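Good morning C.,

I know you're traveling, so I'll keep this short. The sequence:
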Amino acid sequence: MQHFTYSQAQPAAGVVSSSAHSLGTVTSDYTLSSVDTGVNACGTLTLTFPPAPSSGQVITVNNTCSGVVTALLDTLLTSLGTVAAGSSPQGLVISADGASVYAANATSGFIQMYSRAGNGLLTSLGTVAVSGFTKGLAISADGANVYVALNSTNTVQMYSRAGTGLLTSLGTVAAGTSPRGVAISADGASVYVANYTDGTVQMYSRAGNGLLTSLGTVAAAAGPLGVTVSADGNSAYVACVNGVVQMYSRAGNGLLTSLGTVAAGASPFAVVISSDGASVYVTNSTDGTVQMYSRAGSGLLTSLGTAATGSSPQELAISADGNSVYVANGTANTVQMYSRAGTGLLTSLGTVAAGTSPFAVAISADGASVYGTNISAGGLHEYGRGTRTTVPAATSSTFSWVSPSWVIT
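The tokens, ready to paste straight into the viewer:
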């Protein structure tokens, strides 16, 4: 993904290029002409134009590539309906290949398994049992394993994932008291669990067969809930309910070392990091805000202020392309939509209706689908992300302006 940001309302004419090849030409009339150089020429690129063009202006895509490109004209969500889950679904993950979705049902005693169709709709594959009251849920980047924190038994349940998407339990491993959030490093070598009552983060090494071995714990501020690991594997962050984010550096052996804390709002709940590693976002569930941070190379965070959400924001998710953030507004029964600027600042795009008591949000790696759990409604909400249209090879298409960002893939 190549990101290009222009500061003026209409970008000057010029060649859009990366270090590898010319990706296209942008003119003052918002025309992108792809250039087929034979080297990833039809790869993915994102162009962001702040502020948005005036009403009536258009974008033209001239596709001179040898294959079809897809234009993503906005990042708004459109409801596709709901699918049944168990009682109080909370944890929610999507496999990196986009084929499987899993929801941990807190009081039903199982994980609901779904297959995902090309149109984003889900089909139940049945359930697999858990050994306690579920909280956080995570899936490894290689898609081989799923892990769930069991709050009532102070353990983490481990599963292997078959090619069909079905899960098989590998047993449990001990955690601390009241484990909540679960995160897996991008290299798959480490798993981290926030122990809420203990005020610690449990560190595990992950074997090739998916089994976890404890590496001990590292102290956190009071009430650790959400946890995330940067894509480069160098940093981990934990949202702590006492109003801070705990920052850690991560060693090659998976051990974490505290870098101290940075202030958040009231009752931080969940935390995510952008795939480029530049931005970290935390929901402040009592304040009704998202705390925005920039991330330095050292892993230290600097606050960029807050963006308003609906009431009682719970979990949040950021798209792989880095353009969108979505937040489950727990008592507003909505999902808040944001666009993300190159600076990391968020701009609200409004809300879309959810079910009763939305809790978790997850985005497919291809960016086409968003899913949310509805605790009280006992179901999963399915959304399509953006308006997509194809541009055949060697043709040109013109689109009306929809939002301040668009993508060619």
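Safe travels,
E.
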